[in-house]
């Protein structure tokens, strides 16, 4: 490999923010035509490093050298780096939903003819670019009408429109389902064979193992090591060791479930889509939860798991049609979120930042937000009780924050998730529904969250976990339901759960109970 | 602990308050409220002038005249205009600020003559003399003097000119006319209208003159805020509703701005120019009169009005009682205000050159 | 650590975050002092202070309601028109229908509530953006004012004028001051001391060390000193004048609404809705009810402000309320509220409103014309918010914006500052 010319070298990059050293003395060597993965826990400095490279943090705001294509580069902004062929695709896609694919691809870079945009040429070039990324759509299709997977491809096509030499992808598969992820990884391999260099940041270690040539691991803003995947025989555990600086004996804490009787049951649940009323998003679904049990819901993206959870949680999604909820032997009617909370339900949402937390709040305010009545006496909120509650959960969940006065926006993903968990634990729920509880959370924090989930179950609560990561469901849950196109297609006990098994039922309407 | 807590709270705060209270008081009893004008005041005192927003040239001119006139008389002048949108509140604050600054006399051209009584009262309590300029401030016993043109007379002149003008153009009636009046929140608007009607009413009753639209009530004829666009819109609407086939002979307009708006509307509708009255001798209207469009205006020479006002201030400074010529007619709702009235002059094309001979801005227009 | 640094840390908080909350107050104090010098002492003279409060109480009352509307993520453009509409009806009710003035005040508040319910209905239950609903309301109620009043000015009776131009009564022995104002000041001083001592207890209950006793005493001394200064100023005005009734109404509202927004569930819900409405809804907050309440509350306060202005002007006129919405909105934003909602405090808005008021007053005392005053006010608004935005974008301290948090959550009398050793350096949000 060492005979391949070096495309990019970042030498002792140091970047400081007020009060914090985000990067110190980081080195990165990327050779032409390879896929180079950058790994590290949240806060390790991966995104910061990429922002330095792409000119978001301009030359002069950091120390160190960037040598690109053999000469030192001093990018003053993103435009400068893009004109040198470095294109970064962020986790949050930068597409305009109301514009067409072609319009998005050429946004800010429109082909012109005598001052006016030449749409004929644009569409022709767009088709060409789309073919290169394997996207078969009409270039006039609006972005909002295509799935996330295809949107990701549009982003990459957009990069090609800028004549990319070095493609940087930040968590490209985070929002994609298995099939789309596979397609994207294949695409990256194709680019490699055509000599395009890629840098990829990802939390999905299996993907990194499968695709990367070189892996650079960052920890606490420093370079830990660079591994050659083939030569060093790298596997997932090896990467994890580098990231956390210790061996993780197991990805899940040991746990012996103490399962009691069925206490929560949903029967024949039917819900329609909030806007298109002819679309049924929950089709006659029924499930049960026992005390002390962790129940998983497996399914592909768009299978309707979140829709099911939210419609049960006080009809906070869709239009309720029919179905009953039975708790502790009695039928309950939950017409609002307040009803659901009062009846001991809690829902930890899939998207923490968008709908789970008020990012303007601090930890203590967030902690008590869903049950203010607990700290209210004669209409007045008691600040001392608020503080004490938040502090107790901070200690119990080991949330990393100097005090509970810290704003939640300053916390890492894992710690934000702990605050959300604290918020719902504070409501004293009997049933917790956790939607993608470990999305975007690094390995160490995941382990802790699993532990918290198990402790909650051991306290006699029922826990429902919705996850797109099959190993997580298999490792954590006592029982797993599979969902496909708005219907429950199977129920698999822990002992029988294998990825193949689950995948089969997640993709077929045929019900095969293997209880 | 509890008990100590409570006691200490009161003790600490009381001690602190007393310590500071002991520093002594400078409370200035009820100074000035008796208002002994006879004493007069220093010759270089502050004189406040609060005028409405700069919506007509007249107010701008008045402001300039006050600034210069007060300076020449040796006073410190503080001339303020209200803002264009927040008029009343601005003027209230300005008057209060003038009192605070220690003005000895405040001259007020009110934006809303009924909404200043609190400020006038505060000024009076602080021993400041208040002169209402051009608009009578209502509902306050604390107003000292009023200086204005004889507005009833203005209306009479307008009414008479309207009749004369129509007769000169078309010897025999009946004549079709329309009536316009000024902003209902301006006390003068009603006075103009009443003056004009005192002349027109007999003719209307006789049938010589017809208000073809039937809109004779002041509520129907009023133009809010003296706004030109309001007058134009009303005229447009009258032409469409009433003058499809009829001929419009004359329009009673209370001032020049409205007169020109009315003429614009008539021209826009392609009708022959009627006899239109006016007031204020604005530059554009004088041009219009010389060109034979607007029929008449009133010359209320702002120079004279400002001069008389400054004379009053001078009299007050010297400790004398200012000269007034009407102590009966102007009741503002709380008292009869001592008033100095100036006579207005009606100006048509015929006497324009003579009337404006002394006006540096208007005289050249008449040649 | 030197004694001086220690003092500074304890008084204003050692960390930047605690120092911030004083930024706006410093700005206000600076403006006051600049004008005090420039106007040769007129600014802080008792008659001017009294006038300042009387002239601005209605705008500040609007700012209270507007703050809540803006925090919830809306805007209200109709307040001036609603104030004028309520004003003319109240004036008519007294002069033409002979309602006694206390009943007329209740009548005015009821009108505000009805208008508020109307606007709240469209915003909360139909989902029309507040900008549109209140733009419509602005036209609707302005027209209503002219329609009902025939664009006339209608005077109001003496008793009613008290709420706009009245003062605390004179009574008791001749102390050379207004005794009622002295008592009010004493009560305020007691409240401040009580608060400080209570805050120390609260800190103890939160397992944190309260600041040293001498710091508390110094802080109390400063606050009591300021209160005493203000009290004596207000109490030593010309006989017959003292602390204005409209100022008392404002004071009561500020205290009540500050308490409401900070210490009750309803107040929390407003911030939650503005910060992230979906998250709030999923936490059990009744979104529609909160939106309805803030809009309705705003109109009630607008009606009150309208009545106070009418009382002060002794008459209701067709130009009442012109441009008030802009003054109130400016006060709220200068006071550090976020355009997107979720951030802002009552006290911040009041300080923001006072900055504008003092600026206005000071420039008027200097004889600067309204044209230039408007230009200056426009620039101040733009600058205040721009500096804040710039500082935020630079990741540096935001002078006004971040005032909010301490104002809102903590006790402003007790900046929370645990010893530095316990504090990790605040980590900037660096995602990796």
Automatic annotation (TrEMBL), chain A:
Query: In which compartments does the protein localize?
Result: Cell membrane
- Extract the Pfam families matched here: ABC_tran
Q: Drop me one GO molecular function for this one.
A: ATP binding
Give membrane topology per the record: Peripheral membrane protein
Q: Which GO CC terms are listed, alphabetically?
A: plasma membrane
Going by the UniProt record, its keywords in alphabetical order are: ATP-binding, Cell membrane, Membrane, Nucleotide-binding, Repeat, Sugar transport, Translocase, Transport
Domain named ABC transporter is located at 8-245, 266-510
Q: Which Gene3D superfamilies match?
A: P-loop containing nucleotide triphosphate hydrolases
| The keyword Ribosomal protein is assigned to this record | no
Major site of localization recorded for this protein: membrane
Listed InterPro entries: AAA+_ATPase, ABC_carbohydrate_import_ATPase, ABC_transporter-like_ATP-bd, ABC_transporter-like_CS, L-arabinose_ABC_transporter, P-loop_NTPase
Q: Which PANTHER family match?
A: CARBOHYDRATE TRANSPORT ATP-BINDING PROTEIN MG119-RELATED, XYLOSE IMPORT ATP-BINDING PROTEIN XYLG
The name of this protein is: ABC transporter ATP-binding protein
Q: Which organism is it from?
A: Micromonospora arborensis
The lineage, from the top, is: Bacteria, Bacillati, Actinomycetota, Actinomycetes, Micromonosporales
TrEMBL record, chain B:
Concerning Gene3D superfamilies, the annotation shows: 3.40.50.2300
Q: Where are the transmembrane segments?
A: none
What are the alphabetically sorted keywords of the record?
Answer: Signal
Kindly list the places in or outside the cell where this protein is found, as annotated in its UniProt entry: Cell envelope
* Top-level taxon: Bacteria
Which InterPro entries does the record cross-reference, listed alphabetically? Bact_Solute-Bind_Prot2 (IPR050555), Peripla_BP_I (IPR028082), SBP_2_dom (IPR025997)
Tell me which Pfam families the record gives: Peripla_BP_4
GO CC terms? outer membrane-bounded periplasmic space
Where is it mainly found? other
Q: Where is the Periplasmic binding protein domain?
A: 47-320
Q: A Gene Ontology molecular-function term?
A: carbohydrate binding
Q: Where is the signal peptide?
A: 1-21
* SUPFAM superfamilies in alphabetical order: Periplasmic binding protein-like I
Q: What is this protein called?
A: Sugar ABC transporter substrate-binding protein
From TrEMBL, chain C:
Q: How does it sit in the membrane?
A: Multi-pass membrane protein
Provide GO CC annotations from the record: plasma membrane
- Can you tell me where the transmembrane regions are? 21-38, 58-91, 103-125, 176-194, 214-235, 241-260, 292-311, 331-359
Subcellular location(s) per record: Cell membrane
Principal cellular location given in the protein's record: membrane
Instruction: Please list where the region (Disordered) is annotated.
Output: 409-432
Q: Recite the UniProt keywords alphabetically.
A: Cell inner membrane, Cell membrane, Membrane, Sugar transport, Transmembrane, Transmembrane helix, Transport
Q: Which GO terms describe its molecular function?
A: transmembrane transporter activity
What role does it play? Part of the binding-protein-dependent transport system for D-xylose. Probably responsible for the translocation of the substrate across the membrane.
Which NCBIfam families does the record match to this protein?
GguB (NF040906)
Q: What is this protein called?
A: Xylose transport system permease protein XylH
- Gene source species: Micromonospora arborensis
